[in-house]
Design goal:
By secondary structure, this protein is α/β, with parallel strands linked by helices. The chain has six helices and five strands, in the order H-E-H-E-H-E-H-E-H-H-E.
Length: 161
């Protein structure tokens, strides 16, 4: 059995070996405070740590890498948006038609993470695929004031402001 003095000695001797994780992105927290329009590539959302934080982004466009064929907009990527942007400030979201969204509940969950979202750009293919989901349709009717639906892979979509 270890007594209090032995615990104290063990802890004191172990402190020098303790690795304290650094959150490097905090050093850049105010660097991008004036950014309001942001385009992110899907690969950025797959990183484990983020060096930059964009606190005032109101318009966000998510694009897949050029070499990817219909990558999924998975849960980890959607959660990463909270580490890169302030979800409370986002009013516009553009999702490239090249993304594959698994199901309507995944899309609904992502949209609900942005409480101020009022404008959405999405492909007609995604909307047709999820048009039968009453929860998603009710959410879109209630919160989205501007719905921009595009039919083709628009190269101009890359440069939306």
């Amino acid at each position: 059995m270890i007594d209090a003095n032995q615990w104290k000695d063990l802890i004191t001797s172990s402190l020098s070996h303790l690795n304290i994780p650094q959150r490097y992105w905090n050093q850049f927290i105010n660097t991008f405070e004036n950014v309001t329009n942001l385009t992110l590539y899907h690969a950025t959302l797959k990183e484990k740590t983020y060096q930059y934080y964009f606190s005032n982004v109101a318009s966000l466009t998510i694009l897949p890498p050029d070499d990817a064929h219909r990558p999924a907009l998975e849960t980890r990527a959607r959660k990463s948006l909270r580490n890169i942007t302030n979800p409370s400030n986002l009013k516009y979201l553009g999702i490239s038609s090249k993304f594959r969204i698994k199901d309507s509940s995944a899309l609904l969950y992502m949209l609900q993470e942005f409480p101020q979202l009022t404008s959405l750009m999405i492909s007609i293919r995604a909307l047709e695929q999820f048009g039968y989901d009453t929860d998603l349709c009710e959410y879109l009717n209630k919160t989205i004031k501007t719905l921009d639906i595009y039919k083709y892979h628009s190269s101009s979509f890359k440069y939306h402001y």
